[in-house]
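Extended Data, record Cellulose synthase-like protein G3
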Amino acid sequence: TSFFFGFIEFILKTLNLSTNRFNITSKANDDEEQSKRYEQEIFNFGPSSSMFLPMTTAAIVNLLALVWGLYCLFTSREVLVLELMLASFAVVNCLPIYEAMILRKDDGKLSKTVCFSAGILTFAFIVSGYFVFK
């Protein structure tokens, strides 16, 4: 993934478009609240970044896939057990993202703009998938 982001950075810089700046920061921190989150092993999503958009979109898509799979399982329409297991595995791995989107109120939460943009992007994926695969 570092090569992919480096490639995107190079292309955007070559085309004179705005690029994401990657600032190298010290991991030693004097902030007491952030140190407390680190000790509790809680992710810190920090300031808003466009890099969180694909991750948040994938988390929402996985959650909707699990909900739809459970709906199909309980209505006995179609049983796709392996797909349901894959979606549940992805949802369990995305639990810190859901927590940062909905439950957290501190500075380490995901911004509302990233969450709203991810929701719109997810809606666009689902609607386009409906028309493509119908």
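Summary. The helical segments are 2-14, 32-39, 52-74, 81-93, 95-103, 112-133.
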